[in-house]
Amino acid sequence: MITPFDYYSQQINAGLIQEDAQQREVIQRLQQIYEQLLKEQKRESHWSLRWLASFKKNTAIKGLYVWGSVGVGKTLIMDTFYLCCPVKKIRLHFHLFLQHIHAELKAIQGQVNPLKTIAKKIRREAKVICFDEFFVSNITDAMLLGELFQTLFEEGICLITTSNVAPDHLYKEGLQRERFLPAIQAIKQHTVVYHMISHHDYRLTHLQKAGVYFTPLNQQSKKYMENAFLHLAGDETIETTDVEVLGRQVKTIRHTQTMIWFNFVAICGIPRSQNDYIALAEQYHTVLVSDIPILVPNALNFTTAFINLIDVFYDANVRVVISAAADIEHLYPEGRLRFEFARTQSRLIEMQSTDYFNKRAR
């Protein structure tokens, strides 16, 4: 069994990562959580289940909420803890967690206090939940999370999560945000909030462009997209028919069995949930998106959809080839989603690297 602090130090000594003072400070906090969990695990092994249940609420361990700019190593730190965590645990991208909760609610529809039932089930499966990229974008999820988080903490869950924004800025300016405030309060009460203020994006250190982001929108970029599709398709059969995604038809430009090409409006201009993008990520290892416009502040639905698309595809290591009206830095010049889109920009940059692109080589 290796501790988070020892594992992090080993990675530095092996030259796999660069030491960072703020990362080490967060690791030290996670080390404390690790030691508390280990101590509790040993103590629980001597308790009867009935005695343990009676003291469960008093033994909840305070978790950690790490937020800051993109590329400072938040996910690296969380994954280090998860690898070393000595108790039952769950590690999910936040999109997938929400998908799971909605599926559970549908399955037990009609029950009294369904979220309490779900929270108890989660607690039976894990003591620690690790979320990457905590981000709330719609009222349905905000209302759901307001009650769910309070219930999870009551069940003794220890939460480790990363985000690009402070808890107080989650779902900022969202509809009926007051319904989400209890979730924010619960997070602040049951986690230590840590702000990583480093501005160095470690994901750019070894960046090599693979030629998968084409701008501006003109005949040349169209030709580049065409060539990229044909090159990546190889000997696969190419079709131009629409495809069905979760029971709905989606217009395509072209597709094969393993890759697909959409116009931006077809995939982001029509209201879609993260589940649509998760379904695509499960079927296709390469997605091309053409004609992305400059995302203006009042195009909130377009921007949110694009953020969700990139989040899901990045987490699933899906290759993405894009043609856009502007370079990544100027694709979303202003608007209230600037914090969330900063993550999207960083991911788009990394997704152009040959290291990322070769992850899904087949």
Radius of gyration equals: 22 Å
Tally the helices: what do you get? 14
List the quaternary state of the chains: single chain
Rounded mean pLDDT is: 87
Strand arrangement, largest sheet? 2-3-4-1-5
The dominant shape is globular
List keywords for this structure.
362 residues; alpha/beta; Rossmann fold; 5-stranded parallel β-sheet; 5-stranded mixed β-sheet
Written account of the structure:
The protein has helices at 4-13, 21-44, 49-55, 74-84, 94-107, 114-125, 139-154, 181-190, 219-233, 264-268, 274-283, 300-315, 338-350, 354-357, and strands at residues 63-68, 89-93, 128-132, 158-163, 191-196, 213-214, 243-245, 248-250, 254-255, 259-263, 286-292, 319-324. It folds into 2 domains: 4-196, P-loop containing nucleotide triphosphate hydrolases (Rossmann fold, 3-Layer(aba) Sandwich); 206-360, Rossmann fold. It is built from 14 helices and 12 strands. Strand 9 and strand 10 form a beta hairpin. Helix 7 runs parallel beside helix 8. Residues 54-58 have low confidence and may be disordered. The strands form 3 sheets. A 5-stranded parallel β-sheet has the order 2-3-4-1-5. A 5-stranded mixed β-sheet has the order 6-12-11-10-9. The two termini are 35 Å apart. By secondary structure, the chain is of the alpha/beta class.
Give a quick summary of the entry.
The chain is an alpha/beta fold and 362 residues long.
Task: Describe how the helices and strands are arranged.
Layout: H1 4-13, H2 21-44, H3 49-55, E1 63-68, H4 74-84, E2 89-93, H5 94-107, H6 114-125, E3 128-132, H7 139-154, E4 158-163, H8 181-190, E5 191-196, E6 213-214, H9 219-233, E7 243-245, E8 248-250, E9 254-255, E10 259-263, H10 264-268, H11 274-283, E11 286-292, H12 300-315, E12 319-324, H13 338-350, H14 354-357
Parallel strand pairs: 1-4, 1-5, 2-3, 3-4, 6-12, 10-11, 11-12
Antiparallel strand pairs: 7-8, 9-10
Helix pairs in contact: 2-4, 6-7, 7-8, 11-12, 12-13
